[in-house]
Amino acid sequence: MRRAEAAPERPIPATAAKGARRCGWLANPTPANWWLTDAEGQWVLGAQGGDQAPGMDEMPDMSSAGWVETNGHYGYGCACMTITADAGGRVTRIADAQPRPLEQCRADRKLPKPE
Predict the structure, then answer these.
(1) Are 115 and 29 in contact, with CB atoms under 8 Å apart?
(2) Which residue range forms the structural domain that includes residue 91?
(3) Does residue 27 contact residue 35 with C-beta atoms inside 8 Å?
(4) How far apart (Å, rounded) are the C-alpha atoms in residues 8 and 15?
(5) Residue 38 domain-assigned?
(6) Is-above-0.70 flag for pTM?
(7) What are 22-71's pLDDT values in tens digits?
(8) How far apart are CA 62 and CA 60, in angstroms?
(9) Structural domain includes residue 7
(10) Any bridge partners for residue 81, and if so which?
């Protein structure tokens, strides 16, 4: 399994630096490790022992629209979030987050399979 902090440096769309609405797989495989994977890449929300993006504590229950448990209650779901990110894909602010039905992400052919 790819670790969130190992995400390669990549150019990010200019909209991500200003705040963009992104929809995709929201992963929380282990405590404090969170990332969102959309059609353009991986957006790191938090890493165990490291920073957590401002706004994480304001997120609603992201398992309310469906959640796949892969490690106890840890796992992944589908979400849409308005985020600001740096050039490395680390989220610097979560302005809004909403859980979405798993079917929404499963039906999106641009998304990679969840990890």
Answers:
(1) yes
(2) 25-107
(3) yes
(4) 19
(5) yes
(6) yes
(7) 999 999 999 999 999 999 999 999 999 999 999 999 999 999 999 999 99
(8) 6
(9) no
(10) 22, 97
